[in-house]
Amino acid sequence: RLHVVTWNVGTASPPPDVTSLLQLDSAGPAMDMYVIGLQEVNSRITNFLSDLAFDDPWSIFFMTVLSPLGYMKLSSIRMQGLLLLIFVKHVHLPFIRDIHTHYTRTGLYGYWGNKGGVTVRLSLYGHTICFMNCHLPAHMENTEQRLDDFEKILEMQFEGENIPSTLDHDVLFWFGDLNFRIADYGIHFVRESINNKRYNLLWEKDQLNMAKKKEAFLQDFIEGPLQFKPTYKFDLYSDVYDTSEKKRKPAWTDRILWRVKNLCQHASKKGEFSEEEQTISVTLNNYISHMSYGISDHKPVTGTFGLELKPLLSDPLVTLNPEGEWSAEHDVLINYSALPEFPSSAWDWIGLFKVAFRHANDYVTYAWVEDDEVSSSKDGKQVYMSAAEIPDVGGEFLLCYYSNNLQSIVGVSQPFQIQPNRTLIEKDPTQEENSWMQKPDNLESQNEF
């Protein structure tokens, strides 16, 4: 279950509540993954430099909402006002590998990042998936420029060996403020059609729909029906279309599309693929706008998908668990074992995390797998963690194995209890600061300016 969000936030701060945006109040099962693409995140120089040192306010906001629900920020990439965030349930972490990010500037002939695309690709249970958040040029007359820019973004290559090109991924999601407009019709006809909820009268003049009919590189992209009001341009904090002097014509600028390699899902309907051969399929469960959010002149759009995967990976690369009962009164041991093909490194580490942790460097403490190793056999290895590093107050925690070579978490333990220190010795206030200063430096920030 995958939930994709696209929202041009118009340099605004996060709203007080995103329950409906993230479908947190829906009666169905929880999402497995959230993919959140924002455009026009505040990117003034002062904001951007402070965001480089710390997470930006939008990332912090979504982490605060989602981490208590059992989601971790898996990856993020920012290019000026473009931000792409991916959150995933802990249970899936060992089966997500080969995470890479990329950005493509298209503003000012490729020299400026106010327009372009930010991309995250990964392997999910052995299937390659790519997420692409784009902000394309504005204005009615710039259709060709939008198409040229998107072609350029599609042509980008990830750094690293054996990473498929964008269109060679099993599934590609393309979303963002794509800025396509409604051609030909005048503003009165467009608004009247919207007021009467006769959106279908406008579909054939939507520039993206028209381009899909004639541009070969777009024809494999699929989109759900536009059965919601055009999401641009609104007066702030209202559901009234632009009343300024410019009176911009409404348009479906904010879109979510996807592409399945070789169009397996279409072919299967024609009986060309058996169920055994079809290892991945994508189903759109809903495609809606969210009119209650008024912080910008765009309304957010979400797409909720079902990804049906035939797992090509069934075992985590690393299995780990705490040895015996843990408390802050004595040193503790961690047991772990790895699959033969796991590319271990001296820079790998095992982190102790609170159950509601936000991202991979949100650990309480950690142990280096080589420096802190105490025993090794063909069945597994043991690593120790000092009692001085264990939180005195105890609580519910889990262990994660971070691979330096794969730049991702490859093993997660079941949650377990740490018993509180019975003497409850007051913790040295400098200890937390020192722990932060010593953190592994193999977690790189994915920001660009």
From TrEMBL:
<dbReference type="GO" id="GO:0051898">
    <property type="term" value="P:negative regulation of phosphatidylinositol 3-kinase/protein kinase B signal transduction"/>
</dbReference>
<dbReference type="InterPro" id="IPR041611">
    <property type="entry name" value="SKICH"/>
</dbReference>
<dbReference type="GO" id="GO:0005886">
    <property type="term" value="C:plasma membrane"/>
</dbReference>
<dbReference type="InterPro" id="IPR000300">
    <property type="entry name" value="IPPc"/>
</dbReference>
<dbReference type="InterPro" id="IPR036691">
    <property type="entry name" value="Endo/exonu/phosph_ase_sf"/>
</dbReference>
<dbReference type="GO" id="GO:0045719">
    <property type="term" value="P:negative regulation of glycogen biosynthetic process"/>
</dbReference>
<comment type="similarity">
    <text>Belongs to the inositol 1,4,5-trisphosphate 5-phosphatase type II family.</text>
</comment>
<dbReference type="InterPro" id="IPR046985">
    <property type="entry name" value="IP5"/>
</dbReference>
<dbReference type="GO" id="GO:0046627">
    <property type="term" value="P:negative regulation of insulin receptor signaling pathway"/>
</dbReference>
<dbReference type="GO" id="GO:0005783">
    <property type="term" value="C:endoplasmic reticulum"/>
</dbReference>
<dbReference type="GO" id="GO:0046856">
    <property type="term" value="P:phosphatidylinositol dephosphorylation"/>
</dbReference>
<feature type="region of interest" description="Disordered">
    <location>
        <begin position="428"/>
        <end position="449"/>
    </location>
</feature>
<dbReference type="Pfam" id="PF22669">
    <property type="entry name" value="Exo_endo_phos2"/>
</dbReference>
<protein>
    <submittedName>
        <fullName>INP5K phosphatase</fullName>
    </submittedName>
</protein>
<dbReference type="GO" id="GO:0001726">
    <property type="term" value="C:ruffle"/>
</dbReference>
<dbReference type="GO" id="GO:0034485">
    <property type="term" value="F:phosphatidylinositol-3,4,5-trisphosphate 5-phosphatase activity"/>
</dbReference>
<dbReference type="GO" id="GO:0016312">
    <property type="term" value="F:inositol bisphosphate phosphatase activity"/>
</dbReference>
<feature type="domain" description="Inositol polyphosphate-related phosphatase">
    <location>
        <begin position="1"/>
        <end position="313"/>
    </location>
</feature>
<dbReference type="Pfam" id="PF17751">
    <property type="entry name" value="SKICH"/>
</dbReference>
<feature type="compositionally biased region" description="Polar residues">
    <location>
        <begin position="432"/>
        <end position="449"/>
    </location>
</feature>
<dbReference type="GO" id="GO:0004439">
    <property type="term" value="F:phosphatidylinositol-4,5-bisphosphate 5-phosphatase activity"/>
</dbReference>
